[in-house]
Amino acid sequence: MNTVTRPIDCSDAEWQARLKLAATYRVFYMLGWHELIFNHITLRVPDAHDQLLINPFGLAYDEITASNLVKIDFQGKVLGQSRYPVNPAGLVIHSAVHAARPDAHCVMHIHTTASVAVACMEGGVEDSNIYSSQLHDMIAYHTFEGTTVHDDEKSRMIASMGEKRLLVLRNHGLLAHGTSLGHAFVMIWTLNRACEIQQAAHSMGGKTLLLDPAISARSTADALQYDPRFGAGDQVLDAMIRRVDRLDTSYQQ
Questions:
Q1: Taking a C-beta distance cutoff of 8 angstroms, is the pair 99, 74 a contact?
Q2: Computed from CA positions of residues 58, 234, 33, 90, in that sequence, does the dihedral angle turn out positive or negative?
Q3: For a FRET experiment, which of 41, 160, 219, 226 has its CA 20 to 30 Å from that of 7?
Q4: What SS3 class is residue 234?
């Protein structure tokens, strides 16, 4: 990824983080994972553990750039200069996860049609396909409490999540956290793909063929893209960013 002269005062490490986060927003836009001006990807500032980068509230994903990302603390205070506010729902959900899990470098939240549809199903994500088989015992669930803007929900959401990296927000959507942007991306991509297949399978009628839990446990253990030591998640995201770069590099501004 080529860098440009940064128009804001930040460290080299923060600027590189801003570039990759802004590029990831463009990847989400390219994949159709955008919801008008809503939903969020947050990234911990590399040289400040209690600070986050988040999208400016009011901009669509294809308008986000490295310089207009908003830096905030866990209480939502804007740090530095920004003419944009922060969506309270994004603050509540994302700050709760970052604060509770020191290894949550990145948190992603999406409302794709398939993911919300499966989140509305009583049984949640069923283990019936190659994608779900790679997520054995990795998914938690949190009961819907309305629009997520109240601080008192944070503790209940974190309790629901436990030690898992994937959270199905019932009747709402998906959330993932990872040790890097790429790690979180492959986690939520796989879960969303499982939801897409489940939605398609149920539309066909008939009985779904479920997988043996022992087979899925082995499949998950063999899915090395989730292991940060191998960096496969970052390789996947970098490939998507290269695709974005062939279309539009304005996120680097």
A1: yes
A2: negative
A3: 41
A4: helix
pTM equals: 0.94
Structural contact between residues 39 and 112, judged by C-beta atoms closer than 8 angstroms: no
The two tokens of residue 230 are 């191998």
Beta strands per DSSP E along 137-246: 139-142, 166-169, 173-178
Cα–Cα dist 18/53, whole Å: 8
CB-based contacts of 228, cutoff 8 Å, min separation 6: 178, 179, 180, 183
Q: Cα 235 from chain centroid?
A: 16
CA distances from 200 to 10, 114, 210, 238 (A): 46, 9, 15, 29
pLDDT in tens, 179-235: 999 999 999 999 999 999 999 999 999 899 999 999 999 999 998 788 877 778 999
Structure tokens at 33: 């994972």
Going by C-alpha positions, the residue among 93, 79, 88 that lies closest to residue 57 is: 88
Whether the Cβ atoms of residue 41 and residue 24 lie closer than 8 Å to each other: yes
Instruction: Kindly state the tokens that stand for 28.
Output: 């989400």
